[in-house]
Fold peptidoglycan glycosyltransferase.
Amino acid sequence: MACLWGLDRVFPPNLSRLDDLSTVVEGENGRPLRVFGTADGLLRLETRIAEIDPKYIRFLKSYEDRRFDSHFGVDPLALIRAVGQWVRAGHVVSGGSTLTMQVARLLEPRDRTILSKIVEMLRAIQLEAHYSKTEILDMYVTLAPFGGRVEGIRSATHVYFRKEPDHLTIAEAALLTVLPQSPGRLRPDRFPETARAARDKVLDRLYLTNAISRADYIEALAEPLPVAQYPLPMLAPHLAERLVAANRDRTRIVTTIDPALQADLQKLVEFRGADQASERSVAIMVVENSTSKVRAHLGARDYLDRVSHGFVDMTRAIRSPGSTLKPFIYALSFDDHQTHPQTMIWDREIADGSYHPTNFDHGEYGQVSIADALRFSLNIPAVKVLERYGPIRFAQSLRRNGLEMRLPGEAQSPNLAMALGGVGVRLEDLIGFYRALAADRKNCPLQYLRDRAPVPCLSDSDMFSVRTQNWITGILQNTPRPAGYRWQSSDNTNATPIAFKTGTSYGYRDAWAFGYAGDYTVGVWVGKASGQPIPGQTGLGAAAPILFSVFEKLPRPPLSPARKAAFNLWKAPPPDLLKDFSRQQKGTTKQAANGLDIISPAEDAVFLLGDIQQRGVPLRARNGLRPLIWIINGVPLVSDPWKRTVNWMPDAPGFYDITVLDRQGAAHHRRITIRTALPSDH
């Protein structure tokens, strides 16, 4: 006993094979999306007996080791029986190995010799001393061989039956019970008759020992065997690859992906791509609005296709967004009280300036409403509204809310070309903005991992008001549909209409469609990963049909009367000051020509430090051309340059010179005093 105790301390159980596991990326329901092989190329998935159909564990013990729950790792009765059979038959009939001894051999494979059998018995006793029966069975169902590179019961059920091991038929459980005895000789895909005989032998014993009924026995005998080893799932391969690279210490990564939806979308793209150019790729994302969880992620049409560069994840590629930023241009303009959905604007060529945009069809439509300019994606009105709002200000607003944009190489600062796609964005980023438009008006990080705590939103404040959100949604719900799709405005259907926007980049390189309805936002990109143009490809013709096909697979609850009424408010007449964009522009220009002025605080104002330490000092300016810069005693104040009111938090008493500068260099000054609180004020 002392010798055994010493050997146990010097030679502890070698569990290194249990550390060399395949990494599996799973969907939210635990179904595999993609499995990565071990360093040796094996498919060895970590498995627990709690995840396996109980009948398999019952059959395994009954056939392989009936006294497993009571012996100490070695079964003397089984050994005596095996030796007796050997002596009578002149060759090995049964090995007498317990499941624990088999685990010892799986952990440290050895040649089949008497010495190896003795080592296995000692290791089995050692395993029983250190681990529970459940833990030993967990080792077995993870390491047991099932033919080829398949190890472990979970790998086997996916390869042979295309399912998880939690629900097995009697015939399936019987086959898996016997297959590890000789996985190369009993593989049903190669030696079906031998495999059937071995399976039926297990069924015979189960029936004779009353482990299964006669009806179950007859039914199991008639069940066909699997005829092939099926490939493991290859769902969301780009996302799986990225998550494995970011979580190298984990062998099981559970995502937010819905495997059934993901599989449907991959089949959809495969079906639609059959009659398309071979170089064309497709990227799709589906996001749950209430949680920001990504429910489907397709980085390319075919991950394994070299012609279309399928290995490139197009959800993360920097591409021109075309017209997909227009809803946000109008949303910020609405919130700034510069325009209204029914403000009339001239759709005709801009006569002055160096930028001369045209509409997609090179036509002009005269005086149109802002709503119609957005519905029909007219370029000229969008550029005019962006010019009024300010391209730099627009870019800063988007970046402040978490949208990273890449300017073309020759552009030093954001310009009017942004309205028509003159920046670079990623599908993964832009879909977050559309989710905000559909839900809480905040851009929140997308969630890819099921069990990760939600991450704070990228901005504390709302991107725009509820009123503006309803206006934009109502307008986009009434956007013309792609050819072949029924018009679905909020007036003629019970289901929530799809609010969507398409975009086509310059030179027909990128086709986009973003849409939202119910609790889902969908983003679609179509094009060539190489960036080459596809003549005639448009967002409405190439991406929007895919978008609508995706929504056919998603629930869209009925739209309540209150929500329907809110979404129709964009049709209301505008205030008098916002009826005409051109007349409003003249009035604004005249007002901007007035002198820059600080209206608060007053000149020579005196403040008590104790009074303003919590609320600060509001600094207000009027007139002047934004952006505005506030300077306190010669030091610029960190603030939003597009707001005329900022809050300053002084931290010490003294005399302060306050200056505000506008875009043209005009300046205005104030001088104030901040004193400490008097004793009587304490």
